[in-house]
Amino acid sequence: MEAIAEKLTDCQNVYAFEPVYIIAPLGTWRRVPHKKKAYLNAENVAERLRGKREELGVDYLVAFTNLPMRDNKYTDLYAAVSDLDDKVTLFSTYEYLDYMAGERAIERMIANALVFSLTDVPSHSARRTARKDCPSYFNNEHDVRWVTGHLKFCPQCIKEGIDKKSRVALTSIMDAFW
Ligand SMILES: [Zn+2]
User: Ligand 1 centroid to 129 CA: how many Å?
Assistant: First the structure.
């Protein structure tokens, strides 16, 4: 994680990344059974992590888990943005890790996930100018290509207003491990 954070910090001049090790409050990773799977409820985790971002003195907090994750609407989520704080994002690599055997797949997944977390534009389906190989694509088919692939902002996301400076920096992050 240190090496990944360093590389992603050095490849552009807007964002600085650092791995943080936090002792999660008791019950944070409590899993709730649903249809034979024990899911982490993203909303419960977000509630438990409330205030952590300020406590750590960071603008964004991004967490990865290998447990299956759900919220009150969707099961088997890859990404969940906290309703309480949209600068806190959780990712679940559950059932993806087996498909991430390629060279630097984990690094690429982390870079793409960070870009999604740092971008204000909402996630979208694929239609017309909204593309699948975009970090904001809502990957409901769970296709690993849109997790570890070489992503870029789609025309719709560019139009919805990612300012140029951020876009250049975020693109460098998505390109960093290619
Ligand atoms: Zn997009």
Answer: 8
Listed residues: CB within 5 A of ion ligand 1: 134, 136, 154, 157
Kindly give the interhelix angle for 2-10 and 105-118, rounded to the nearest 10 degrees: 60
Does the pLDDT of residue 28 top 80, yes or no?
no
Residue 77 DSSP SS3 = coil
**If you measure from the C-alpha of residue 91 to the centroid of ligand 1, how many angstroms do you get, rounded to a whole number?**
18
Distance 69 CA to ligand 1 centre (A): 23
Contact assessment for residue 93 and residue 69, using Cβ atoms and an 8 Å cutoff: no
Res. 40: pLDDT tops 70: yes
CATH number of 2-175, picked from 3.30.1360, 3.40.390, 3.30.1050, 3.40.50: 3.40.390
Closest to 150 in 3D by CA, of 171, 123, 120, 126: 171
> How far away, in angstroms, is 118 Cα from ligand 1 center?
13
Q: Could you tell me the end-to-end alpha-carbon distance of the chain, in angstroms, rounded to an integer?
A: 17
